[in-house]
Design brief:
- By secondary structure, the protein is of the alpha/beta class.
- The chain is built from eleven helices and 30 strands.
- A hairpin with a 2-residue loop joins strand 20 and strand 21.
- The protein is globular and about 75 Å long.
- The two termini are 38 Å apart.
Length: 470
């Protein structure tokens, strides 16, 4: 049996403005109706699996849980990283969790959650071969057979041969174009997919020998983890003490007996908007048009609308990505600069780096409609039966106007039942809570006023979703 380990960390800054720090690319439907995380889980259907393990950041826990419920993986073990420490520690805590389940040295299939794989049958066939290799004690990595001298991927060098299993020789960083061409001319080089397969105990043994500081920190973080209903919170101090390193550097480059399984399955890691365009299937003019787009005389463009009409005329080799609060326009040969742009936005403390106007919450969502000096208007949607935390604000008052459904409003011990077109006022400093007691979604307009309107002006006293510090 195979234990899937889905790595759902990372910020996906190269896909801004659609990918945001608090809602990055792995949770977005970039090439189909489901998110990349959901697509990763679905392509495992039919393999001999046990309960999946997902490693993600603390701030993404509710998104992961909700998306896994939507694809029928309610029982997945969700490990929460208090800080990012790259793939070697993330896989280590997943291996420890798999062993804690009681299986004797289970085989892990480690998958980043932001890939596209067009040929699922070929992928699963290669995974089954990797499973046999892992059972024999080998450390397996999957090398993508290159079809071009790509400079956006790292490369794996394997011994030359026609076998389906090749001894691993080395990993190399992303090359320049001349070096990438040389790799393809020489043969024996593959794109580094970031996918791995091995037994949990074998990986931990290698990590203990080759990167003992990472191993010790991860053991402590897992032993001291707090287990909740839906999540496993790794101990923050222990996990933060781990060095940050990838599995490639910490283990795979140094271990003996590692093997490469060449994989041809229409793979992409969606590392840029150009990769998204290629994976989405361009039309006869090389264009990919998504959402509300009107296009005349364009060629080799990606045009994507999330909210408003995007009208484009006579463009060539351009990317236009529209969202409710930001629009990216870039030439395809400058897409590597998107990450630099996000750094500049971060230094400028722009909100557009963190979140979209519509923000998902475990109880529903809120969307900022209008924002100005000392006021803000939001649309709030609360799921049936859900409730917000019992909370208080130091700097703002709120007016709630119900537009659909029924609201149960708590304010300093007083409880009001509000229906459509009814409203209530929440003064500054009042302990309050909003509950949807109905069977349909509650929609209301919240008008905030005060000298500070940030989301960090919340003091929580009770919370169904574990957001109150113990």
């Amino acid at each position: 049996m195979i234990t899937p380990v889905l790595l759902a960390g990372g910020s996906g800054t190269r896909l801004w403005p659609l990918s945001r720090e608090l809602f990055p690319k792995q949770f977005l439907p970039l090439t189909g109706p489901e998110s990349q995380l959901q697509a990763t889980a679905r392509r495992l259907a039919g393999l001999p699996l046990v309960t999946a393990i997902i490693v993600c950041g603390e701030e993404h826990r509710f998104v992961v849980a909700e998306q896994m419920r939507a694809v029928g993986l309610e029982d997945a073990h969700i490990l929460l990283e208090p800080v990012g420490r790259d793939t070697a520690p993330a896989i280590a805590v997943a291996a420890l969790e798999a062993l804690a389940e009681g299986a004797e040295n289970p085989v892990l299939l480690v998958l980043p959650s932001d890939h596209v794989i067009a040929d699922v049958q070929s992928f699963q066939k290669t995974v089954q071969l990797g499973y046999k290799q892992a059972l024999d004690g080998r450390m397996v990595t999957f090398g993508i057979v290159p079809d071009s001298p790509a400079t956006g991927y790292g490369y794996i060098q394997a011994e030359m041969g026609d076998s389906a299993v090749l001894p691993l020789l080395s990993f190399t960083e992303k090359p320049d174009l001349d070096t990438a061409r040389q790799y393809l001319d020489e043969g024996g080089y593959y794109w580094n997919s970031g996918m791995f397969m091995f037994r949990a105990g074998d990986y931990l043994d290698q990590l203990k020998a080759l990167a003992p500081e990472i191993y010790a920190a991860c053991v402590q973080a897992h032993q001291k983890a707090q287990r909740e209903k839906d999540f496993i919170r790794l101990d923050a101090d222990s996990f933060s003490a781990s060095p940050s390193d990838s599995i490639d550097y910490a283990v795979m480059e140094k271990t003996s007996g590692a093997v490469v399984l060449p994989l041809e399955a229409g793979w992409s890691d969606l590392g840029s908007w150009d990769a998204v365009a290629q994976a989405s299937g361009p039309d006869a003019s090389g264009n990919v048009e998504q959402g509300d787009v009107m296009s005349l005389g364009n060629s080799n463009c990606l045009l994507r609308s999330e909210q408003r009409l995007v009208a484009a005329i006579g463009l060539q080799d351009q990317v236009v990505i529209e969202t409710a609060d930001a629009v990216l326009v870039a030439h395809k040969n400058q897409l590597q600069q998107v990450k630099t742009l996000v750094k500049e936005l971060t230094l400028a403390k722009r909100d557009e780096v963190l979140n979209h106007r519509k923000v998902e919450r475990p109880w529903g969502s809120y969307e900022t409609l209008v924002k100005g000096p000392r006021f803000q208007v939001k649309k709030i949607v609360v799921k049936p039966g859900a409730r917000l935390s019992l909370q208080m604000h130091h700097h703002r008052a709120e007016h709630w106007v119900v537009v659909h459904g029924t609201a149960e409003a708590h304010c300093d011990g007083e409880v009001l039942l509000l229906s459509e077109n009814q409203s209530t006022y929440i003064p500054i400093g009042c302990k309050h809570r909003l509950i949807n007691p109905g069977a349909s979604p509650l929609e209301l307009i919240e008008i905030q006023s005060g000298d500070y309107l940030g989301e960090d002006d919340i003091v929580r006293y009770e919370d169904t979703y574990g957001r109150v510090a113990s």
